[in-house]
Amino acid sequence: MSEIATDLPRPQAASVVTEGGLVRGLLVTVAIVFLALFLVLPLVTVFVQAFAKGWDAYLAAFREPDALSAIRLTLITAAIAVPFNLVFGIAASWAIAKFEFTGKNLLVTLIDLPFSVSPVVSGLIYVLVFGSQGLLGPWLIEHDIQIIFALPGIVLATIFVTFPFVARQLIPLMQEQGTAEEEAALTLGASGWHAFRTVTLPNIRWGLLYSVLLCNARAMGEFGAVSVVSGHIRGLTNTLPLHVEILYNEYNFVASFAVASLLAGLALVTLGLKSLLEWRYAGDLAASGRRH
């Protein structure tokens, strides 16, 4: 029987690719043309226009006081918003992935809210709440507290549009890892904080870095919500994206593209780091799958 079975032809594995070579080639061509027209060409144009009048003109765009103020404000906003989102994202993802509680589905829905609300609308909401004619406006004026058209309003708007990034990356990763390792640590006498620091955090480190990277890139490049709450006060409340818009509207094209190239460079660096962290992040998920 074994000899007969050995001689039988083995079935060929069915291919999951059913399209012919012509169709595959057409799909690849469409994708490449699309990326070239809508991604590569605009990116190249930004750098070409930025250096259109030479290196000196390019550097001069960053020596302007308004440009330095915009860079400083952008960095301060990101430095405040990202840690807030980091703490919230870890806490929310840990609660959702590791525990069952009333309102869990509501929390997941609220985390996705900034993805479904226009940034301009979210900025307008802050104006309606904290503006001089808003819900809390009279009380804020009475106590000499300014939120709208100042740094606090910009930070609040940035936190709102970026807070899903950390939680949304960590929730599936923690759910895949389950609770077995934390339960084992607790059984051996570890405290909850010690189990989180020595077990949970090392398992999510690459996914955490990946989410923080995306959150920081969005915080530094946010335009819509910040545009509403900033008031466009030159040298005070303009971030880099707003400064680019002002320069372009004033027909100062070289300076506007020079500042835009800084944001484009940030995007390229983010893309490179994102690819690296995606590889490590996928490794975390694969290792988690093997353990479970």
From TrEMBL:
Which branch of life, at top level?
Bacteria
| GO cellular component annotations of the record | plasma membrane
Q: Where in the cell is it found?
A: Cell inner membrane
User: What parts of the sequence cross the membrane?
Assistant: 26-52, 73-97, 117-140, 147-167, 251-273
- Report the residue ranges that make up the ABC transmembrane type-1 domain in this protein: 71-272
Listed GO molecular functions?
ABC-type sulfate transporter activity
Topology within the bilayer: Multi-pass membrane protein
Keyword Membrane present in the record's keywords: the answer is yes
Write out the entry's keywords from A to Z.
Answer: Cell inner membrane, Cell membrane, Membrane, Sulfate transport, Transmembrane, Transmembrane helix, Transport
> Which Pfam families does this chain map to?
BPD_transp_1 (PF00528)
Q: Which PANTHER family does the entry link to?
A: SULFATE TRANSPORT SYSTEM PERMEASE PROTEIN, SULFATE TRANSPORT SYSTEM PERMEASE PROTEIN CYSW
- What's its job? Part of the ABC transporter complex CysAWTP (TC 3.A.1.6.1) involved in sulfate/thiosulfate import. Probably responsible for the translocation of the substrate across the membrane.
Subunit architecture: The complex is composed of two ATP-binding proteins (CysA), two transmembrane proteins (CysT and CysW) and a solute-binding protein (CysP).
Instruction: Return the protein name.
Output: Sulfate transport system permease protein CysW
| Organism encoding this protein | Methylobacterium gossipiicola
Classification of source organism: Bacteria, Pseudomonadati, Pseudomonadota, Alphaproteobacteria, Hyphomicrobiales
